[in-house]
Amino acid sequence: MKFYGQHILTSGQFDKEGLLSLFEEAHAMQKILEKGKKSSVLDGKVLATLFFEPSTRTRFSFESAMLRLGGSVISNADMMQTSSLTKMETLYDTGKVVSKMADVIVARHSTGGAVSEISRGSEVPVINAGDGAFEHPTQGLIDVYTIWKEKGRLADLTVGLVGDLKFGRVPHSQCKLLKHFKVKFLCVAPKGIELPEEMVLELKDSGCEVEFAENLEQAISEMDVIGMTRVQKERFSGESEYKKYAGSYVLDGEVLKKAKKDAVIIHPLPRVNEISVEVDSDPRAKYFGQVRNGVALRMALLKKVLVEE
Ligand code: NCD
């Protein structure tokens, strides 16, 4: 697959070879990161971050990645309130206009497909930093990169997807990446917010096994990867609807006793209460380490998108 000059809108655009080449690059970037030295590979390039939805990690992570590669950043963290959207500018025009001032755009929006609309107008690559309940490709990449680093492989793994598999854009992106490696998916979701049927079919069509369980305590013993996610409160029609599902699955010290000794626990964060703080000190907990991996992965992606190989 080609990275240079491309929009990154869905995890579906990655193939196995592209993924592995990105992970190798991220590995090299991790060395730059750990040395604490700035590279000049993106000297003169400008990243624009357009966030129409709240973010802590993703925006900072992209900005940190760009700055560490010698590039610059222009940023709007509150597009809904402070951009020309309030004057009825279209997403298409916003993409067009910002692309005249930046070399790459990273955008997040609460509506599925909105980032694609920005990319239609843009003359520079647009990276999807989350669009509604659709996808969050770079978080999916970080998760899979973390698994690759920790387990040393991606094939022959049982990956648990635990939590809100309907509205969680991260599990959707994880599925589209992991399907290339014939992993076995073990889905643990409350009734009503299960993995969408089309996604299950897509995984099965790719030759993956997909199993379902209701009880996390029982299912966890089979998982090589324990992929936790929060219930996506902002996607429900109201508080009472959300409360039906909140707190359905909690990974605490007791539940963790049933897990494999070499399991890897991932979570895109933010967590609400689905992982107890006592789990943080367990060597299997990789979710804070993932944040660091995310900077390296995004450094690799920005380089591949902006520099012709
Ligand atoms: C995720 C997101 O925004 O989808 N967060 C992130 O980018 N790390 C996960 C979430 O909000 O649950």
Number of helices: 12
Hetero compounds: N-carbamoyl-L-aspartate
The N- and C-terminal alpha carbons lie at a distance of 12 Å
Indicate the CATH architecture of the largest domain: 3-Layer(aba) Sandwich
Kindly report the average pLDDT value.
Answer: 97
Question: What's the count of strands?
Answer: 9
The helix-strand sequence is HEHEHHEHEHEHEHEHEHHEH
In terms of per-residue confidence, which ranges show pLDDT below 50 for 5 or more consecutive residues? none
Strand content: 5-15%
CATH topology heading of the largest domain? Rossmann fold
Shape: globular
Strand order of the largest sheet: 7-6-5-8-9
Q: What's the structural domain tally?
A: 2
- Structural class designation: alpha/beta
Rg over CA atoms, rounded to whole Å, is 19 Å
User: Helix content range of the residues, please?
Assistant: 25-40%
CATH superfamily of the largest domain: Aspartate/ornithine carbamoyltransferase
| CATH C-level of the largest domain | Alpha Beta
Major sheet: 5 strands, parallel
Assembly state here? single chain
